[in-house]
Amino acid sequence: MLTQSAELSSPVILQMTLLLSLILSVLGVRGGPAEGENRVPRGSKRGESQKITFGSCNKPWKPQPLWEKILAEESQAFMWTGDAVYTNGSDIEDLEKAITQQLNHPDYQTLIKSGIEIIGAVDDHDYGVNDAGKDVEKRSERIKAYGEFLHRSNLKSRKDAVDYIKQDGLYSTYTLKENNGERTAKVIMLDSRTQREPYMWHLPSFIMNHRIPVIFRFFGPINTILRLLSSSVQALYQDLTGNDVAGEMLGESQWGWLEDNLRDSDASFHVIISGVQVWTSNPLVESWGHFPRSRKRLAALLEKYKPKGVIFISGDVHFAELISGVTLNETVELTCSGLTHYFFQQYLVGPLGEYVISHYRTHRAKEEDVYTGGINYGLLSFNWNGEDAICGSEPVLNSYVKDHLGNAVLSTQTCAQPSAQDWLSLHNQRRLSIDPISVAIFGVCALLLMTISAIAYYLCCCRRTERKFKEKEN
C-alpha cells in the first residue's frame, strides 16, 4: 500500500511543483545559485572547457575582420595583449582620438554588444608612442586614457569591472573558475611599459625623446636597428664584466604585487601576459632580453614559487610564434600579434622579415612550423577534465593561434602541474649575444635611413623657409 500510495502521489507532486514554478516565475523569482556562489560563465556548460580569446596590434582605421571569428569561439572573455589602438601622432589628443575611433568601430561594437567580458594588458601604442617607456610625456594621463578604454569596452558597470589603474602603472589579474568552482586559472597581466627604463645607452629611445627629425615611416626600422646595436653593446659589457646590465621593467610596487600573486597560489594555471616578448633570442625586437637583470628576477620568482601550469603570452612583433624552454620540448611562451596588420606587410622591414625570423631562431624548437605571418588571434581553452595523452588525468590548457579563417596554425599544451623548466638556466641560455654580421648589415642600413631622413628634413625646412620669405615679400 505504501508503494502504491507513493506512485499515486507522484503526479500530484509533479503538478504542484509545476504550479509553484509558474507562480514564482510570474512573481519574478528565478532559481539558480545564491549570490556569491559559482555560476556557469558565458559560453560554457557544465562539463565543457572554458575559453579566453586574445589578440594584439590593432589599427582603428583598418578593417577588423577577426571579431566575427572571435565571437564564434564563445569564450568567457576577450583579452587585449597589447597595442589595442595605434595613433597617427604622439600627443595625448591623438591617443584619445584613436580610442574613440576604436570604440566606435562597427565590428568592435559587435563584440562589446555581445556582452563578452573584455580585459587587457598594456603596450607602447596603448600610450600613443612607439617604444614608449617611463620617460614618455604625460604618462599618468595616458594610463588613465587606456584604463578608461578598457572600462568602456565592457557593458558591465565600472563597479564590477577589473580594477586596472594603479598609481605606478596598469596591471591586474583575472581569475577564471572551473564550472564547479573547485579549480581556477589565474591570468596575470603585467605592465611592461609604465616603469620600463630606457635601453642601455638610451640608444633606441634617443630618437623619440630628443625629437630627432625623421620621416615617420622610417622611425620603426631605425629604432629596430638601434636595438640590435644596443644589444651588441650590452652583450660585450656582460662578456667583459660578467654582470647583467641594469634596467628596470616593472618597478618595485609591481614586483611586490607579482610575488604576492605567485606566493602560495593554488591556481591550476598561471597565464602571464607581457606586451613584449620575454624568452626570445631575437635582439631586433623589444623584449625582456634587453633588460637581463629584470628577466633574471622574474626567473628567480618562478624558481622560488614553482607555480603550476605556467605559460607566457605576448604580442608586439606583428607575427606569431611558439617559444621553447631549455630542452626545446616544452613551450614556455606563445606570441600572437597582428589583428589588423602583420610583419611581412611592413614598409622596408617587411622584405627582410623571412631572413630576420629564420636567422634568430634558437628560441624555437622547430623553425619550419612554429612561426607564422598573416593576421591572427589567440585562444586559450581550459579542459578541466584532463584525459590527455600528455597530461594524463590532470587539467590541460590548449593554446592556439588562429588565422583569418579561424583555423589553428600554431598550438601547444600546458599541464596543470609545476613546470620542470629551469627558469634561471633558460634566462642564461637566452642572453642576447654579439652578432657582427647583422650589426654590420643593419648598421649600414641605419646610417642610410638616417641620412635619407636628414636630407628630406633639410629639403622640407628649405622649402618652408623659402615659402615664408616669399610671403614676407608679398
Distance between the termini: 117 Å
Class from secondary-structure proportions: alpha/beta
Query: How many beta-strand runs?
Result: 15
Average predicted local confidence, pLDDT = 79
Parts with pLDDT < 50 across at least 5 consecutive residues:
1-47, 157-161, 209-216
Question: What's the alpha carbon Rg, rounded to whole Å?
Answer: 26 Å
Shape: globular
The ordered string of helix (H) and strand (E) elements is HEHEHHEHEEEEHHHEHEEEHEEEEHH
Number of helices: 12
The largest β sheet comes out as: 7 strands, mixed
**Share in β-strands:** 15-25%
How much helicity do the residues have? 25-40%
The order of strands across the largest sheet is 6-7-8-9-11-10-12
